[in-house]
Amino acid sequence: MADIVSPLPGVFYRKPGPGKPPFANEGDSIEIGQTVGIIEIMKQFTEIQSDVAGTLESFKVNEGDMVNPGDTIIVIREG
Amino acid sequence: MKKLLIANRGEIAVRIARTAREMGIETLLVTSEPDAASLAAGAADNFIVIGPAPAAASYLNQDAIIAAAVDNRCDAIHPGYGFLSENAIFARKVIEAGLTWVGPDAGAIEMMGNKSMARESARKAGVPVLRGSDGPLDPEADALEAARGIGYPLMVKASAGGGGRGIRFVHNEDELLETIEMARGEAASVFGDPTVYLERFVQHARHVEVQVLGDGTNFIHLGDRDCSMQRRSQKVIEEAPAPDLPDAVRRTIRESSVELARECGYSGAGTVEFLYDPAGQEAAFIEMNTRIQVEHPVTEEITGVDLIREQLLIASTGSMSIRQDDVRFSGHAIECRINAEDPDHNFFPSPGLIQSIEWPSGEGIRVDTGVEAGSLVSPYYDSLLAKLIVHTPDRNSAIAAMLAALDATHIDGVKTTIPVHKTLLARPEFTAVKHHSKFIETVDNLMEAP
After folding, report:
1. Do B348 and A64 lie within an 8 Å CB cutoff?
2. ipTM surpasses cut 0.95
3. Whole-prediction pTM value?
């Protein structure tokens, strides 16, 4: 298992915008560098990318929740 | 007007509360949960929490705001800038609820919100516009032919865009059709309207603008401002009057802006924005903002007119207190926007707890702040903390006064853009008015450059 952690504080979103499909869902196969979410801080958006390949196991943060640097956002089952 | 609801936050909420108090109007501020502890909440006579931190659930929650106004017997709503200030649907709802909307009528907001309609009404009012497609580009028309009459490079702009969004560049004829296709698709998905128009592109343009006031009967201007120092289309430093502008251009933009306000029977404060091409000494219409602007203090300083007071008077009595002949200009004013961003890390947002603040004071110095020591700068909203404004007899002394004021400002706890302002104000391009709206992006390593 590999954790994707937030590098910054902000608000986590699974979707690129309201009414848009999520970047990724539980069970999806994920590639290295794939965008899995975004973090908004003061109207600036930072894409969160996976640094491992594998299957998206679970989200540890809900849509619209605050995260702090180092918080685990997503767990990926490697391979 | 006895009781005013302020539908905003931060420094502009504090600013509106100040003038309302001077006019004997009671204020009620609506806030999000974290903002209940803000400086603005203390500045208003009362505040009420209407929702959680995300703006969509609080400051953009139209029904909650109107309900708060009705339940608390307010008779008017001031939207400030941003949030719902240019939302015609909200303006209509406010009026339908029997309340006074502090701003122009919904029709004017709607017309100016549609950029190709705005351009067309500006042209009719005699406001200079860039060569372009004069209204929306007809999907059936020959775009190549239309573009030949404009010349390259040109811009494809979304009619529903604005504020620097929804713009694509076309360098030559080969790129045109594909770019228009992409721009239409993007405009449809981002703004819900695929309409685009074409406009000539001016390299190294300055951004100048005219402050107007109208009460439906009388229409006046309060001079011009220059906001050329921008980063990614966000204004950084603003000044009034606009420096190094030929008299004929200044007269043209001021008079035609008043004509545009007259043309739409404008009621309230508004700003007509222009780009100015120093090479060709030509100004051209960009857009009209139908609200109070962030940078309104520089105009207040050189005219002595309280723009918020005029907004409230127009909304409550139907007339402003001044005529064009009453407007006198004196000296030069500069405003620096102090943002919670880290200039050493590509202006990355810097929320957090403000441990201490020291502001400058003295003659000709004004501070419009939304924070104080102990304030928590939230990650949920934009990064503007405060505006530092100086007013002195001329531009050189204003630059010197601003540098001294910045030196006397100390904010601990969050990173701020204060060092950027010191660097920019000292740049020879700024002092010689050779900067333009893309200047910051063209300087590599701004903070290290001499």
Report:
1. no
2. no
3. 0.89
